[in-house]
Amino acid sequence: MAQRLDNIRNFCIIAHIDHGKTTLSDRVLELTEAIDLRNLREQTLDAMDLERERGITIKSHPVSMAYTAKDGKTYLLNLIDTPGHVDFNYEVSRSMGACEGAVLVVDAAQGVEAQTVANAYLAIDNELEIVPVLNKVDLPGANIEDVSHQIEDVLGISMDRPLLISAKTGEGVPDVLEAIVARIPPPETAGVDAPLRALVFDSVFDEFRGVITYVRVVDGCIKVGDAVRFIGSGQTTQLREVGIFSPDQKPVDVLEAGQVGYLVGAIKDPADIKIGDTVTWVKDGATEPLPGFKEVRPMVFSGVYPVSSDEFEKVRAGLEKLHLNDSAFTFHAESSVALGFGFRCGFLGLLHMEVVQERLRREFDLDIINTHPSVVYRVLLKDGEVLELDNPVQLPDVTRIEQIEEPMIKATIICPSECIGDIMRIALERRGEVKGTESLDTRRVILTFILPLNEILIDFHDMLKSVSRGYASMDYEPYGYQASDIVKMDILLNGELVDAFSILVHRDKAVARGRQMCKALSESIPPHMFKIPVQAAIGRTIIAREDIRAFRKDVLAKLYGGDVTRKQKVLKKQKAGKARMKEFGQVNVPQSAFISVLKGSSKDD
Amino acid sequence: MPSHLYIHVPFCDGKCHYCGFFSVVAAPSVIELYNTLPAREYDCRLTRLPELGKVPLRTLYMGGGTPAMLGNDGLKRLADALSKRLPFDTLEEWTVEVTPTSASVALFATLATIGVNRISIGVQSFDDTILSRIGRRHDAQAAITAVKRAQDAGFVNTGIDLIAGLPGVTPTLWSETLERAISLSLTHLSVYALIVESGTPLARQVEDGLELPGDDDQLAALAQAETALGEAGFARYEISNYALPGFECRHNLAVWRGHDFLGLGPSAASRVGRMRWTNSEDLEEYIHAVKHDAPPPADSTALDAVEDAEERVIFALRLSEGIDLAAEASRFPALAGKVGVWEQRLADLVVHGITERVGDRWRLTARGREVCDAVLRELV
Hints:
The complex is a heterodimer. By secondary structure, chain A is α+β, with helices and mostly antiparallel strands. Chain A folds into 5 domains: 2-183, Rossmann fold, CATH 3.40.50; 197-281, Translation factors (Elongation Factor Tu (Ef-tu), domain 3, Beta Barrel), CATH 2.40.30.10; 300-371, Elongation Factor G (Translational Gtpase), domain 3 (Alpha-Beta Plaits), CATH 3.30.70; 378-484, Alpha-Beta Plaits, CATH 3.30.70.240; 488-604, 2-Layer Sandwich (Alpha-Beta Plaits). Chain A is globular and about 90 Å long. By secondary structure, chain B is α/β, with parallel strands linked by helices. Chain B has helices spanning 28-34, 37-48, 71-85, 105-114, 128-133, 140-152, 171-182, 201-207, 215-231, 250-256, 283-291, 305-314, 325-331, 336-348, 366-370, 372-379; strands at 4-9, 59-64, 93-98, 118-124, 158-164, 188-193, 235-238, 241-243, 262-264, 269-272, 275-279, 298-302, 355-358, 361-364. The interface between A and B is medium-sized, with 28 and 42 residues.
């Protein structure tokens, strides 16, 4: 028989970026004295520097707090922090699977944004009780009435009992804690004595302790020394440590039904842990797993290559280490004629790609080149075979291809009404199809488009922000595959094909994209002693061309005895500088050229 | 003894605005003190590198600075001191750099007496306005007189230096300068594109807004020189050097072809075996060390076999004769792994009109000479 664990609440906080989710988390932690005030630095839960810098959470960190409510009872609150960005929806949904309720934070000045909508719908899908909170009510621009209407009209969430807070000053935050206790249902369990079932919602890697698995115990209890089995993967291990988050890891003797905590066994490889799996006892364990999470599949792929080929192993080591903490990206070795040996990496989305690449540079001090991102194309061959292609270079000869299908997305864009025209134009230029327009309030609309994913890979987001002066927000979700006239476009430097620059592109877009890439390359490759044609081609047909002019002169007028010594040194030094570039044929290409082609349209287009 | 000897005389009567060489305006007592020290530095070097004494002396080059600042007696004493250590009977070429300000009849008589057979006069320009603007302390007439005096003293092999691309020099003025040079019955001309050396007054003037001719104008001036001098029978045998057939500077040819040379005096550079070193520019330290029979302070490097060979070979690309890679490979076995790559690199540039192969030799084309350093960078 199911029983209720009345003194426990499991919840998460969801919000659009910058609406104050992390600040609210910090205040909640302070109020429950879960952390020492002296150690509180801004945004405690966002542990990575990169996260703090960008104000986004990438990894979720659970935390347990004791809270004595106005009813005099003490409750155990388990906060499961969630990332805010669309790319990390998989993490959000993981976290939600371990909760009964969600605190939805909405900026009272900004109102409902795209990620507010996406996260709220996700919470509704997960059958969570939603506690809406208006944050930043002390700001002059706060418009409580309008924003409340938006929440009711767009999200269908009742604002009968509005919570008006300023997470920054702490005003109203105690009411949020009360609402959590009052409104979010307590977890249900088959009992502390029932066979163990614990939901795996995350894992991290610790250099000394191996894999640390984050779980929510649903039924039964877990003790140090227990032999446990992961029902899905079949892995077994003996637990050396169990503990809770307060907010740092703190070992305890036993984790009981309703609690959120961590397990340390003897598992060394994070790949052995499947998120959504169920932990039970080896002996007398449960047979029925908890409903699992959906499998996460990368949507965006890009090559990651060392600038200097002897750093291949260093890059591999970096990727392996990073993967221990972010199992959502995939990588496998590949080689490029132009770039030598490197890796094909799969990411959940664009931000995820950026974050991983940036972490490789920063945390592992790697000099890497990223190739043009690509989506996964489905190539139907005439012989009936179907290929899934994440690298343009692998495209078979056109004569063998029956049809190419590309992945589509459904994009939800919220923007000021006066931007509709511009945003429609941008979306249509990118082969988008309008699915719906809906008024959010008197000033803003919700636009829904079906777009090819590859059209938003490069600068779509930047364009949105630029035409809306930063006010538009966007979220997207996969929307199946669609047949499309996709061609492979190559770039030739000095007449030589550089495979690392090859892209798959819609035929109608090829000329414009070709011009753009040639221009970007011609602006970022420094002049050489000879003229360099930069060409874009489909098959043997050249569709765009730019020339990099030769530099005029480079010669020392006087070179006698002493100068030879000096000159030799200078030449060697300059040569060392050149080694940081990649040489294709006779052309030295700096890293910046690889970045420049990702920048999309140049200003004067 | 070394086959090729350079002696630096670090004294001048003033400093020209573009000059980056080491020289000082010194009191006569200091110059007196310096006098025969290069000969004594030779003794120090010989003690440490006995192989220096195993080959006959073929070329001697005295530059500066202004060698004439040593005075006629000083020059004689230095020559005397050198000849005691290094017999002059095998000497093929002895060059002395002369400035128009120091070009007295007596000076040339002295130089002829001690055995000098080649004169190089720093002229730079034949326009008085330009000369004074770049800090020269003579006019055009003095330069012409200097050439005449050298020739009158019997120096058939007399050459001058000119600077191309000086600010304010129009193509017409440059043409007149070249015509004037051609009219002087010279055997050798060095034509340097203006270099702004850091720390010079010229560098400061440029910082303060002095406009220099652009690359196009400078290259046009060099091309103009090549044409005019070519018509007068001068071959451009090195990027900045022209000579009548047989009058190429043998000393400098030896340097460009990668042979050993010994440099004496402060700031002088040497290349002996796998060693290269450059004496410190500190005149006081130099005098102090050599007076006590110690080698002067120098920045020295021991090269490995590949570096050594590489450096000795590639700079010959500056010469119109170019490089015979197969011959260099047998001259330097260490280059075995390199010549194949070089061959390829140089061949890749043919299509761009930068290099050409003539018989067994690789050489730069006219365009190649404009980007010589970029080509060298492909090889190092």
